[in-house]
Structures are given as C-alpha cells and as structure tokens.
Fold:
Amino acid sequence: MDGTIIVADDDRSIRTVLSQALTRAGCRVRATGNLSTLWKWIEEGEGDVVVTDVMMPDGDALDLLPKIIATRPDLPVVVMSAQNTVTTAMRASKAGAFDYMPKPFDLSAFLALVNKATKQIRPAAKPAESPEQLPLVGHSPMMQEVYRIMARLTHTDLGVMIFGESGTGKEIVASTLHSFSQRKSAPFVSINLAATPPDMIESRLFGNEGTTGLYESAFGGTLFLDNVDDMPLDAQMRLLRVLQGQDNDDVRIIASTRQDLQYLVAEGKFREDLFFRLNVVPIRLPRLAERLEDIPDLARHFLTEAAKGGLPQKTITPEALDHLRSHNWGGNVRELENFIKRMTVLCPEEEIGATIIRRELASHMELGPQEPKRHQKLSSTIEGHLKHYFSLHSGALPPPGLYDKIIREVERPLISICLQETGGNQLKTAELLGINRNTLRKKIRELGIEVLRSKKMM
Structure:
C-alpha cells in the first residue's frame, strides 16, 4: 500500500493505533484531532485518502463532507463512527463517503478498505441530507453489516431480497431502502402475500377489468412483496412476464422471504428464473437471539414509541433489561415490542423493574404443561394447551406470530423422536415424515436438533 493517509479522530489512542498500522503497511500518515486542521490540510492538497471520525470536538465530519467533495472531488473519504445506526450509515453514503466503518472494527478489514480507497476513484457524490429518525435500532455487528449493505444500495434501483424470520423487521428495511432512494417521492406499495388468499394474489397485484393492481399503483416507486415464498406458481409466472417486459425505471421490486427459496426452487415450488430476478442483492436480517446486545436499545426505543402513542411514559431498570436479554424471543423484535407495550400498561410504577419483568416473562411464553388424558387425541391435547395459554393473558390477545410459535413447538419433538426411532438415519426419517431430505436437514439446523446415530432401525 502506498500514499498519504490523513487520519482525523479526537481519540488519541485510536489515532496512534491507526497511524502505526498504516505506517507498517507502507503509508505516510498525518493525524489530527479536529476538523479545522483536517480542512486546512485538504485545502493545501494534502492526502490521498481521508479517514475521519464523525463526531469531532469542533463539528460533525459529515457536515464537512460536501465541502471536501466540492474542493477535492477525487479524494476518497472513509467515515468511522461509534454511533452505529442506520442513520449514520445512510448519511455517510448520501454525503458521498467512499465507505463507512462502524467502530470497533478489525484492523485487517480497515487496512483492506484503505488500500481499496487508494486504488479507486471515489464515486460521484450526492448532496448531503439532514439525518432522519428511523425505526431501525441496534448497534450489534450483525445489524452493522445490514446497515452497510443498505447504505450501498442508496444510489441504485437494484432488486433486493430480504431474508429473515417473522418479526425481524423486513418491511421496515424495505420502506427504509425506499425512503433513501431516488424514488422516495413516488409510492411505496406493500402486499403481504402470506395474508392474501392465494386465488386473489394475481388480481391484487395486476388488477382486472375495471380495477388497478398494486403493481401499476407502484409505478415510479417501489413494490414490496412481503413473504414472496407464499406466491402461487401461476402468479409467479405472471410476475416474471411483467418483469421481463417492463422498462427498468417502471417499478423497483423488493421482496422478502421467511424460507430458503433455493430449497423451494429445488422442490419445484418457486420458479428459478424469478428467484434470480428478485435475488439481485440479498440482505439477511438476524434473529433477535443473534443480536441480544441490541435488546436494551430496542426496549428503550419501544418505551419511547409507546409514550408517543399515548401509553404511559415508563423507564426500565438495568436488572429488568438483563432479564429481557436472557429470554428466548421466538417472535423476534416484534414479540419484544408487543411485550414492552404490554409492560407500559401492566406496570403501575413509572420504572419497570426486574420483578414484574420476571413474573410476566414466566407466563409470556409458557403454554403450561398439562398431562394428557389416556387415549386423548393430539388435537384435543393441543387445544387444551392453547386454551391455557390464552387464559394467561387475562382477556387480552397474545403477541402476533402464534402460528409459527406453535408449529415450531410441535416440529421439534416430532423430528427429534422420529430421528431417535430411526437411529439418526436422516434418509429414513425424511421418508417417515414424508418430506424432502434437504428440507429435513434444514429443519434440523434451524431447530438446533442434535442427531445421534445408533443401531436402532439400521
């Protein structure tokens, strides 16, 4: 690596570490702790690449970025920030940053990015926009990767496929991509295909005599196909024909799926040609269990949103947050949001403490073990469990996502027992269950089932 790198960060230790790493890599380094010196060096023609923190003692580097671009249009600027939100990533991209790196970061990744910046001309910039308050919350590494992909999509109309379980925030990501795109002044139209009767999907999307379909309503904007894995094959064929015949600027398609579409393609349930058209840029949203460090931020965010919606203003104790972090949130972020809203109503104090959280969590997920009667049908046993579960909510409805929750609770023992009975033979188990072997492998992985081989049924 060669060239002069300007490092701007108000933290002396960070300046030292980055300067030493860049020097060892063969670069010349100039380091400063304020924006005024950074701007002076840029005006004097110093530097081949700039690496700068966002929040500096004398201002916001993103506010200075348009001025840097106007003065030195070929100077790549890499933005670093400990304020790791989607807003920061989007602001950096909109302001014309070469790239964005959330702190903390790996030094080898940092050096690779700077090396890339020294060899490439920074792409043309867009005017900076004021930050917007967005509903995407979290600083975890997995969410940082989501933010970076979203930021890189800001200036494109590429199709996006969002992978994620129910409740992970797929529609929020889709609407955010639209809001930061060049289509933001045009309609954002959404359809939940899982909640639409299969025989009505085609007419809802494309209309019929005398009615306008959602596709036409989204002209110039974005059409979000939520749960595209539930689209029937005839509607898939119609969508493919429309996409093949449309002008590139007619409608941007963003789709989401709860399932691995490649498995559906292999089983003949989803068209491969449509999959490749939709899956141009994939974004995987993590389960809440994969981003537990975000729970405090999420909980406080939902308390604020609840108060804006007219519910009582509450705060939450650190001990209560610890209990939330240790819980199994099968319904992901949506389940946590509903639980927090419920707490704002049930908790009589202004501060939600560990005691009420612990008590409510105990009844929140448990269906309540009941001993089945001898020779009782499975449907009757499940009915008893469900009635008990509803009774725990004191007349209120339980959180959304009950269908997936119950299916998961039945699937795990069903597959586990079948594996035990076949001695861990997955081929025999798939045959016994009447499902594809690849589907079985996927379920074993998703449910975390341990497969133990034995001589039984071998």
About this structure: Confidence is low (pLDDT under 50) at residues 122-134, 367-375. Residues 51 and 78 are 5 Å apart (CA to CA). DSSP finds 20 helices and 14 strands in the chain. The domain at 4-128 is CATH 3.40.50.2300 (Rossmann fold).
